[in-house]
Amino acid sequence: MTTNKNDKFNARTVSEEGRSIVYLSGELDLSVAPDFRLVMEPLVGDSDVDLAINLKELKYIDSTGIGILLSILKARHSMNASFSVEEVPTQIQKLFDMTGIAKFFEPQENSQ
Amino acid sequence: MTTNKNDKFNARTVSEEGRSIVYLSGELDLSVAPDFRLVMEPLVGDSDVDLAINLKELKYIDSTGIGILLSILKARHSMNASFSVEEVPTQIQKLFDMTGIAKFFEPQENSQ
Amino acid sequence: MKADQTVTLNLPATADYVDIVRLNLYGIASKMGFSYEDIEDMKVAVSEACNNSVLYAYGQEGGLVEVVFGVNGEELTITVKDEGVSFALSQEASDAPTLHNKELHDVEIGGLGFYLMQALMDDVRVASESGKGTQVVLTKRLTRSEEKV
Amino acid sequence: MKADQTVTLNLPATADYVDIVRLNLYGIASKMGFSYEDIEDMKVAVSEACNNSVLYAYGQEGGLVEVVFGVNGEELTITVKDEGVSFALSQEASDAPTLHNKELHDVEIGGLGFYLMQALMDDVRVASESGKGTQVVLTKRLTRSEEKV
Ligand SMILES: Nc1ncnc2c1ncn2[C@@H]1O[C@H](COP(=O)(O)OP(=O)(O)O)[C@@H](O)[C@H]1O
Ligand SMILES: Nc1ncnc2c1ncn2[C@@H]1O[C@H](COP(=O)(O)OP(=O)(O)O)[C@@H](O)[C@H]1O
Questions:
Q1: How far apart are CA D59 and CA D62, in angstroms?
Q2: D5-141 placed in CATH 3.30.565.10
Q3: Which residue from B17, C39, D73, D134 puts its CA 20 to 30 A from C90's CA?
Q4: Where are the domains of chain C?
Q5: Cβ contacts (< 8 Å) between B63 and chain C: which residues?
Q6: Which domains does chain A have, with CATH numbers?
Q7: Which residues contact C6 (CB under 8 A, 6 or more apart)?
Q8: CB under 6 Å to ligand 1: residues?
Q9: How would you write the pLDDT of chain A (112 residues) with one tens digit per residue?
């Protein structure tokens, strides 16, 4: 089937002054996980920039998406590079809290 | 099942100066046909007011809804009272044209 | 082209559930790349077929409607099936059910369902067999904006 | 209270179709009067069950997922069934799969699916039988804002 994935999920990167922000919109689920990984790969590897994702327009995430965020967190952590989330919708924050991924997104001074 | 019909279809009547306009929104289908008939009944019987429905916010109609409009047209015609439609969305106008109900909504001077 | 895929939906033959059929149609057709207008057309056609199963197939005791979405790269085929009473589609009814040549006082309500299905889809097949209920097969071809290489 | 009603959906066990299950869930649950938040919770839980059937049930040749929505005035029961390989849900996995007590370098990816289903639904039952595939039954009770008289 020709899936119109762009209607469903979109990731737009804005880079400036040592900082990259990826704006996600739509539904981040199993079907678009490979697309999301592809967008993030080159950004994750670049330890010189601060990396953030903006979730304001993200309507849906499940353990597939949370798993990808977790692997990015691990990769960035091992490189001593930052990775943060911005404008997290209530429903998604709830899932971040439930699973426990939330604490890894805390500002560095608060993390153990 | 407890259907939350109001989320699905709504009809709001605004009456002023010898004119009643019923604003429809949502989907007018078989499941809400009885509700729509109930709203229209007292208005259709009152030949002293000009009756109109505004379809700007109507997202869907099928032959069930068109059938009700047709029976209102017939009733109003036999009473020599007016019934018109306002702000018809393109997709709905297409169905009005296809079925042929469109010509009955034409301004009176144009009808045969 | 990928192999054919099928989504099958079984639901109570009541007016309350016809919007669920439209939701599925929307989801599947937009995935396939149909235009907004084509999707709206198909919504009406499929609902007409479902409305008929709801209204005419079963008596008081009710029954089920099965909707099968057949997906391939070329077209969407939607089959609406019930196991209710059968009927004969009269020639007159399918010939001139519209209002185009009628005066308002001559108009009778009803009979627009099959006309709309035919006008809105590329192909409509009806099979209504005694004791086996009714099966309506609706087909819409996918017209691409850009040709695939 | 009206009698129980059932909507059954059969679809290919591929990632592409899981959003169709969410559409049906949305349509049925909002009809029943569930809150926005409850619907969002159920969307995730049902998707987790479907994702598992897509990822683990079948090999290369693929297969089908059946989703049954059981509707009554009290609760929504969603059954996600596949006919793929079976598995044993390990006790450890369902005991502490979250990240709450872990450091980032200790974290392993995966294992959150059943945890989320349990956290988001009122009841989760899993049956995975050799040769019969897996069946996950998810239940959410309808909490009314106003009590019916
Ligand atoms: N699924 C069905 N089962 C039994 N009878 C049907 C079915 N579908 C259609 N019919 C019969 O065919 C007639 C024409 O249907 P249709 O063109 O949709 O117009 P309408 O529903 O407005 O009468 C119906 O009035 C009904 O008698
Ligand atoms: N439908 C299924 N068919 C076969 N195995 C399954 C199925 N659902 C779950 N499993 C097994 O149970 C494990 C735990 O599932 P889950 O809690 O959803 O976490 P994850 O999918 O992230 O591994 C899976 O890794 C898989 O081995």
A1: 6
A2: yes
A3: C39
A4: 5-141
A5: 48, 51, 112-113, 116
A6: 5-104 (3.30.750.24)
A7: C68, C69, C70, C71, D10, D11, D12
A8: B 63; C 48, 52-53, 56-57, 82, 84-85, 87, 93, 110-114, 134
A9: 444 556 799 999 999 989 999 999 999 999 999 999 999 999 999 999 999 999 999 999 999 999 999 999 999 999 999 999 999 999 999 999 999 999 999 654 433 3
- Please report which ligand is nearest the Cα atom of D55: 2
Backbone angles phi, psi at B54, to 5 degrees: -105, 125
Structure tokens at D136: 């996950």
- Could you give the ipTM of this predicted complex? 0.91
d(CA B11, CA B13): 7
Ligand nearest to the CA of C58: 1
What is the residue whose two structure tokens read 């009710």? C62
Query: CB within 8 A of D36, min separation 6: which ones?
Result: none
Asked if C56 and C103 touch (Cβ cutoff 8 Å), the reply is no
Contacts of A7 in chain C (CB under 8 A): 30
What HEC string does A1-49 produce?
Answer: CCCCHHHHEEEEEEEECCEEEEEEEEEECHHHHHHHHHHHHHHHHCCCC
A98 phi/psi in degrees, rounded to 5: -55, -50
